[in-house]
Amino acid sequence: MTTMLSLNDGHQIPQLGFGLWQVPAASTAETTASALRMGYRLVDGAAIYGNEEGQGEGVRQSGLPRDQVFVTTKVWNSEQGFDRALLATEASLKRLGLDHVDLLLIHWPCPAKDLYLDTWRALIRLREDGRALSIGVSNFQEPHLQRIIGETGVTPVVNQVEINPRLQQPTLRAFHDQHGIVTQSWTPLGQGRSFDAAPVRAAALRSGKSPAQVILRWHIQIGASVIPRSTREAGLRENLDIFDFTLNDAEMAAIAALDEGARCGPDPAQFNMA
Ligand code: NAD
Prior knowledge:
- The chain is of the alpha/beta class.
- 40% of the residues lie in helices and 15% in strands.
């Protein structure tokens, strides 16, 4: 069972969840219900993933009380701006079949559009209206965070960004810590780039865990929330089974040394896709 992290608005977020990017719409309800039944409590979705209907259906099929499941969705780039973001969120809630989400994120800052501040104001309104219990951002860099915090006085609870052993983003994470923002790691397994790295293999051998479990445990121990994706039942179980061992200081330091600032995904400063 996962540990919980405190958010800066008084709510809590499960530290471990699962992600729905590239999960086929037709099997999303089944994957979601199965993951929730095996012990996950956070399901990370987004309008652009095209599977919000299944995400909501899976929450219902799990049989868990609604307040035991943490549901995230995101406002896509083409829906930025105050009015559009309000409408897009209503459409997401309708597809999910829910009256609120636990966490609503702006998916990317899209700096060239220069609409993320207006979009943030819409998220503040949606929180006031109870359509999202908590609001945050994704792929924001320090200048984007400084701007929305400075202009509105509202600090996002979460910034969901790419983090894996080859891209550890220590400066951004330190900024998050200073401002009470939870770091949430996407592509946490880094496309397997570090499965064969010596520190990961050594920690896996010592602890009797897989390289993926060692890397997910590293995310937990740096204090991040982490949302790996697997559509296989065995993979989902493996990724959940990371709370019965600890990486020691030497192992954490050796994994820290793998950072080379290399992204799997796009650079948020340049990414403005509609
Ligand atoms: P991930 O790091 O979770 O890796 C998924 C891949 O690893 C899949 O191919 C899966 O089969 C494999 N895998 C999973 N568990 C494994 C295991 N135990 N051993 C070996 N291989 C394993 O990558 P991801 O899906 O890119 O990211 C996770 C989630 O993050 C997404 O589903 C999505 O919810 C979110 N995300 C958000 C953004 C964003 O812009 N906010 C971008 C990308 C992903």
